[in-house]
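hey can u run this one w/ uridine-diphosphate-N-acetylglucosamine bound, need the structure tokens asap thx
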Amino acid sequence: MDKLVVTGPTPLKGEVVISGAKNAAVAILPAALLIDGICTIENVPNISDVKISCEILEKLGAKIDWIAPNTITIDSRNITTTKAPLDLTSKFRASYYIIGAMLSRKGSIEVGMPGGCKLGARPIDQHIKGFEALGATVTVEKGKIVANAEKLVGNNIYMDIVSVGATINIMLSAVLAEGTTIIDNAAKEPHIVDVANFLNTMGADIRGAGTDVIKVNGVKRLKGDATYSVVPDQIEAGTFMLAAVASKGDLLIKNCITKHLESITAKIVEVGAHVEDYGDSIRVWCDKRPKSAKIKTLPYPGFPTDLQPQMGVVLSIANGTSMINENIWESRFQYTEELNKMGAKISAQGKTAIFEGVEKLSGSPVYSTDLRAGAALIIAGIVAEGTTEIYNLEHIDRGYENIEEKFRNIGANIKRVTE
Ligand code: UD1
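ok here u go:
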């Protein structure tokens, strides 16, 4: 079993380069199943969720080559089965994108129930509603999802809830459908725009991604023969921004799209940090104890739920009492118990957590309860006095590329130890 050993406190200083977005990559890879040809994808983060996605695609008959450390080619000309391996698909959340892509390409698919971080109930009713509106039959039983369609025909779909996954999945299923699909009340996250741009580069006709109405005009075939580069990871960039604030450091965060970071920038300025925005990089520094704040997580362009735990570390050491209102996931405060082991004073109940800021945290053994909680605990370890040991690293490895190397390069005393 691996653990991360972090000794602090250390103000983080220097430059860090952001990788391609996990949540875009894990959608773009299945989207490549729609292509009757070969495509090249650059800026692919080398993380375990991506490796599992590659394995699933290969089991379905696609051929994948890593031609450079972050570049792959995918040849989807010969899809040989419509049964995705149940064990692999149930390992992570984004395996549900296989359904939309394979329904569109082959009219049939069987996958395991998607797994992923335990953040509370994670229903997929809006995905299913979309597939059914296009003419598919979907059954969920005995831990698997089976979807079939003789033919998919475009339709108007109003999403009852703003869902990133359902928006992308319906977009995927509509790409090769007959006629036009309109997705109303769509999610607007940067990776939705990225998946649409990828598909359009390969020959699809998708308009309006990034607004709450997306129009997909079905096309007969995606031909591929093109290269696409995955958008920089907004959540990884935000993680380092918040690490700079919490550690009273000074970081230049490169290869990001600062437009995607506006809600985070606004909050870190509010707590007293400084920001210089260069468009594709951002400098964040903080020279005093952060001030308290109120945070509400919301769909994009609101403050992202995936940065809520990292913001929680900043607020745990802020001057005064802060509040976080979590509006997306019902169980996203599990990390607060771990921070309390390090001396934080947080009480969480239902959707709300109250942070009574303490002057310092102290090192302790802690357990990463999910992916972003893991990132938050690394930041807490860097800020805390003494040594923090972080367990359950499989969560962190799912979504952050070379995380300890990136933190070490900006001054953190962090190492991975195999016990
Ligand atoms: C994606 C991200 C995840 C992020 C989340 C919200 C990926 C792989 N994961 O997850 O990191 O935390 O967006 O930004 O991109 N819901 C329903 N029915 C559905 C679908 C969702 O009720 O059919 C609810 C969920 O329970 C949740 C809310 O809608 O309360 C948002 O979920 P959604 O945007 O779908 O999250 P994911 O796509 O699973």
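The chain is about 30% helix and 25% strand. anyway lmk if its weird
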